[in-house]
Amino acid sequence: MRSGRGLRTQRLSMAVVASVLGLSTHTGLCRAELATVLLDAITDKDPLVQEQVCGSLCALGESQPEEALGVCEEHLRQHDKLAHPYRAMILRAMETVVNNHLSELDKDTARAVILLASGEMTRVKELVYDWQQAASSVLVAVGKRFIGRVMEELLSKFQPGVLPHYFVVQTLASLSVSNVFGMVPFLTSVLSTMLPMLGAAKHDTMRVVFCSALQHFSESTLEYLANLDQAPDPTVRKDTFAADIFSAYDILFHHWLPSREAKLRLAVVEALGPMSHLLPSAKLEEQLPKLLPGVLALYKKHAETVHVSKSLGQILEAAVSVGSRTLEVQLDILLAALHTQVGWGRASVDPRVVLRAGPARWG
């Protein structure tokens, strides 16, 4: 007599074979059978069985992506009490299907997936990283094509005066990386809503994710501006974002960088590098006498300094690009700090940045 686990594994294998061979053309039968497989097997403690579940969903998605996504959505909605780890598994399978067949999805399927993933991501306020990250990744995948619909959903949960869910901010940041041309046109409204939230963020966890978002928003904006000939809106200019970025800079540098929490300090310095390129030229020149010593001071506070060096290189490059004269005054301090880093072998500064900065203004 076969064990229950053996029977489940056999059933899962049959589901894989059926989907691969295209035997799932009878939609009602396929949905019922696959939903039963999920219900019976997704909570099995055997990792091999769990892998078969995900494999079945992904294999079905190869021939019928909308069918597979519909099964996943239906199962998650019908099994509201299914534990977080299993929900995350199903969401990861959905992400795979979306990424592999994004061009084949219609608007109705995309909307259903967006609403499901958004609900999964924000269902509970506390962080349940694997589950919420899996839901966020689904939104990012759909957002590569349906950015407008994804942003409509996210902005409904990113309202003025209300501190948003951690993963709403994280998803906005990820979207700005995965779909630069689609996301940058939304950034003026996102930044105007975000700025008052920075002052309301009292916990380091939220401060870190805001820093990450500002870093990625700045990087995406710089990429957009560097490729205006391909951009959907070639009228976008750096000064469109300058005032908001400076307001955010003021909070990050003067209020968050002095934190005792190392993770927050590193998140701040990673954001300051790309943000420096978007600051108004006069403001950057005004801030350099404080900004450079503030960044250099982090070398003494962190054993791993690669992020400090990268940010410093970006700030120096920004300063050179606006013809800063402050660098001449700061030269001795900069060289002493960099010499120490090179001598200790603890971190590296991009030599291309330093060399570009050197001959341009410091000779």
Automatic annotation (TrEMBL):
MROH2B-like HEAT-repeats domain sequence ranges: 279-343
Annotated MROH2B-like N-terminal HEAT-repeats domain residues: 57-276
Pfam families per record: HEAT_Maestro_2, HEAT_MROH2B_1st
Coiled coil (residue ranges): none
Entry superkingdom: Eukaryota
Single GO cellular component term: cytoplasm
Signal sequence segment: 1-32
UniProt keyword annotations, A-Z: Repeat, Signal
Record's protein name: Maestro heat-like repeat-containing protein family member 1
Organism this protein belongs to: Camelus dromedarius (Dromedary)
